[in-house]
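Q: I have two molecules that I believe assemble together. Could you output structure tokens for the complex as a whole instead of separate predictions?
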Amino acid sequence: AQKITQTQPGMFVQEKEAVTLDCTYDTSDQSYGLFWYKQPSSGEMIFLIYQGSYDEQNATEGRYSLNFQKARKSANLVISASQLGDSAMYFCAMRERNAGGTSYGKLTFGQGTILTVHP
Amino acid sequence: DGGITQSPKYLFRKEGQNVTLSCEQNLNHDAMYWYRQDPGQGLRLIYYSQIVNDFQKGDIAEGYSVSREKKESFPLTVTSAQKNPTAFYLCASSMGGFTGELFFGEGSRLTVL
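A: Yes, here they are, computed for all two components at once.
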């Protein structure tokens, strides 16, 4: 089973409007972390926002917010007031404990969503 | 400036040749990672290391090897055993622990001719 599922291969949004990128995850851990990254066409990976499984408030960073619904195992990214520079691939990722259960390490990534912002 | 440096940015290889991708970080991070990305796809973990002289296989380690002799360096060798090595390779590092995000290099694009 996929650990991270991003069901929207591509999304379009008009400049200055808000857009939601979907992400669902699968884990049996109680402690985990959820991340969103942006990848422009240049290929670099830019960290956007983080949500811990025990965080009661939804994470926000500027125009980015994370709509965290723990019972539904979803962690959707909301971008407000879209800009042309937001056009990129967006990845949702999760960190769980390692197999030994003693330390936290690698991120597992979803397949990504390509966002295109129209003027 | 602190960051992660990957080299070379572009690399061409003939079939049957081994090639080594360099990854150096000056962020004093304990953990380092190698991911592979194919066109239009997500990132898949090849190897990771949480401490010097120790590393673990990721999801797609076959045909790859790594070493972690220094905290700053985590080179990846793509061997001739890797059946389909043409891809974009991304190195990352983190403080380790639960909340630390991964910091990525700019990537190395490997093409097998």
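A: One point stands out. The CA atoms of residues 16 and 80 of chain B lie 5 Å apart.
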